[in-house]
Design a protein that fits this description.
Blueprint (H helix, E strand, L loop, with lengths): L2 H12 L14 E3 L7 E8 L5 E7 L9 E6 L3 H8 L4 H4 L4 E4 L3 H10 L4 E4 L1 H43 L18 H6 L2 H5 L7 H13 L1 H18 L4 H18 L2 H12 L1 H5 L1 H4 L4 H16 L6 H12 L1
Parallel strand pairs: 2-5, 5-6
Antiparallel strand pairs: 1-4, 2-3, 3-4
Helix pairs in contact: 2-4, 5-9, 5-11, 8-9, 9-10
Length: 321
């Protein structure tokens, strides 16, 4: 049987798609109140053509059937809150925790929809913010290195032209090579994964490259060490009060470091201090939501895009609601 014919038969005859109770509004939102649990994750995903949906999942579902609580078109707080409030207030008040990224819109949605829930900022988004700030420092140094190399080439060409006028010859220009055989621009370009990864995950080549990089740019090493200190704090199984003390010391160290890019990380901590600290109460993350989003993307790939959003939502509902 032709694949398109089978798909049409499933959609129109075999499945219960046409009698689905959420069909009328499926493109705007789908809600499954029966899947509400005590611990939820709030995230966003892109279906097709930049169409963003807010996704609410139940951690207890572990990415399987019963995981999907709601999907709402868009990320505007007013729209998402209106859809989530279609679930009974009595059940919404039983929600204990909601994990989100650092988006203010997401946090407002969580607070308004689940007023008794403890709001938790996902630790991996916090760490990612710090890692990216350190990588921006690497990129800045990379541009400086490229500019220095370009300057050296310009000066060589000037000397070459002058030498030709005076009848002198010169050796071809060669860049300075480090102990591992790479030039500094090459090391800078290949160090992105060094500053974004934990040092325990470096391979031997990366260890050598990191040593050269950090010897040449000690401030970059200091920024990387501050990033690793933050990761170490999150990895500790400690109480929220103990974490508060460690994070306060870390905050002071970053402040003393004085790098503007890292100061923006400190501003984020100031704005979301309590919701970041809340992680240490239950050690809950948004990993389940990220995993669920990966499943949606894989499902979307099977469809080769999403042409019929309502039918796509129906298929998701059958698998995960």
């Amino acid at each position: 049987m032709n694949g398109q014919t089978l798909r049409k038969q499933y959609k129109e005859v075999i499945s219960e798609y046409r009698t689905w109770d959420q069909l009328d509004h499926a493109e705007e939102y789908i809600v499954f109140e029966e899947n509400l649990g005590s611990d939820l994750s709030l995230d966003e995903t892109c279906l097709s053509n930049g169409e963003v949906y807010t996704v609410l999942t139940n951690k207890a579902g572990h990415g399987r059937k019963g995981s999907l609580v709601a999907m709402v078109r868009g990320v505007a707080s007013e729209t998402v809150i209106k859809a989530l409030k279609r679930m009974s207030r009595h059940k919404r008040l039983k929600v204990k925790t909601v994990t989100t990224d650092l988006s203010s819109a997401m946090m407002l949605t969580a607070r308004q929809s689940f007023p008794r829930a403890e709001l938790i900022n996902d630790r991996f988004h916090v760490q990612q913010l710090m890692n990216e700030a350190v990588d921006h420092l690497r990129v800045r140094y990379r541009w400086e290195v490229l500019e220095a190399e370009n300057k050296a080439i310009r000066e060589y060409r000037e000397k070459l032209r002058e030498g030709k006028r005076n009848g002198h010859s010169m050796e071809p220009w060669e860049p300075t090579r480090m102990s591992n055989g790479e030039t500094m621009p090459q090391i800078m370009a290949r160090s992105k994964h060094i500053v974004l990864k934990h040092f325990s995950k470096w391979n031997e080549q990366q260890k050598i490259r990191a040593q050269i990089l950090f010897e040449a740019y000690p401030k970059l090493k200091q920024g990387y060490e501050l990033s690793m200190k933050l990761t170490a704090i999150f990895n500790k199984r400690i109480t929220a009060d103990s974490a508060r003390l460690l994070l306060a010391k870390w905050y002071n160290q970053v402040e003393a470091f004085g790098e503007p890019g890292l100061n923006r990380v400190l501003e984020t901590f100031e704005n979301h201090y309590q919701t970041i600290i809340n992680y240490f109460n239950e050690r809950l993350t948004n990993a389940s939501a990220e995993s669920f989003n990966a499943k949606i993307k894989a499902f979307r790939t099977q469809f080769r895009g999403v042409g019929d959003i309502k039918f796509f939502m129906y298929r998701l509902a059958m698998l995960y609601s």
